[in-house]
Amino acid sequence: MEEVRASAAWVASCSSHVVVDSAGIERAVENIQEIPRIEWDFEGIHYFDNGPLTVQYLFVLDTLNFCFWPDKDLSYDHLASGLKAALENDKSVFDADRLQKFTGPQLRDLLKWPRPLPLEDERIRLLHEVGFELKRSFGGKASNLVETCGKSAAKLVATVTSLFPGFRDHSVYKGHQVFLYKRAQIFAADLFGAFKGRGYGEFTDIGSITIFADYIVPAVLQQLGVLKYSSTLVRMIESDNEILSGSEEEVELRACSIYAVEKMRDLLRVKSGKQVLSIELDLWLWAFGVRCPSLRHHRTLSIYY
Ligand SMILES: Nc1nc2c(c(CN[C@H]3C=C[C@H](O)[C@@H]3O)cn2[C@@H]2O[C@H](COP(=O)(O)O)[C@@H](O)[C@H]2O)c(=O)[nH]1
């Protein structure tokens, strides 16, 4: 994930709307006695059977793991628990052949959602893409895809982003390509979390994964005083103005979040001598953010997060 780390650091070094505040990082880290251990699936909403079907479920989940906010009643929980119920009801629902044939109304029915999902046509296109490529290259099974990566999370992210175009979460910022790879990285992290670092979740390089730059974590980092926004950006977020995907503001919010958490991780290592994973920091920050209803986040229509 060197390209994610390096390009996020580069954005932070020349950003115009978001500042990573070193003093804020020091204060935040000083206040942390110990990183609260948040259990993966603390919500109890994910499917798990310790086998290949769980891998298929997580791949479909992370194919669709983006953009819930345009519908004020919809959240990630609905997606995770809706897909779980669908799989419990029909073990072949995420077979590659069936993924290639999904329609919007069928996905809505599956999730028991009464109206069109945000970016529903994109969600369907991505399901088709995943079904097609899984069938073409991996005998239809996401578990085979994971097995070809030889316990390397970095290889898994590289394979997913090279074979499945919908996972290629990158931007061009001030002329430079910036890699963020939120859904590809969270797929590796979800495997690691669900399988508790064993079996399909065993990765020798899990420390290489960065945080997942979504719309919750930047808002938490701002509240902690780790990120500082320009007054124009504050106004845009507070007035719920859409921030365009690929705009300087949007890339800075996401890239500076990645960079800031890497800095927090470095400082924690120096302070306590302990190695903390970025994904542990991510889950702690994210779980805090989703439990905080007053948190205002930026609004971008995007298939990446
Ligand atoms: N950085 C980060 N972002 C994450 C997650 C997760 C879920 N991870 C699961 C894995 C194990 C745990 O038990 C979690 O359940 C979702 N998201 C993002 O949040 C947003 C949804 O927010 P809201 O509209 O309020 O539901 C949306 O962009 C979604 O893509 C995470 O872990 N980290």
From TrEMBL:
Q: Which UniProt keywords apply?
A: Hydrolase
Could you tell me which InterPro entries the record lists for this protein?
Answer: Q_salvage (IPR019438)
The parts of the chain that form a coiled coil are none
List, alphabetically, the Pfam families matched. Answer: Q_salvage
Per the UniProt record, which EC number(s) apply here? 3.2.2.-
According to its UniProt record, this protein's enzyme class is: hydrolase
What is the catalytic activity of this protein?
queuosine 5'-phosphate + H2O = queuine + D-ribose 5-phosphate
Q: What does this protein do?
A: Catalyzes the hydrolysis of queuosine 5'-phosphate, releasing the nucleobase queuine (q). Is required for salvage of queuine from exogenous queuosine (Q) that is imported and then converted to queuosine 5'-phosphate intracellularly.
Q: Which family does it belong to?
A: Belongs to the QNG1 protein family.
The name this protein goes by in its record: Queuosine 5'-phosphate N-glycosylase/hydrolase
- What is the organism field in this record? Hevea brasiliensis
Q: What is the lineage of its organism?
A: Eukaryota, Viridiplantae, Streptophyta, Embryophyta, Tracheophyta
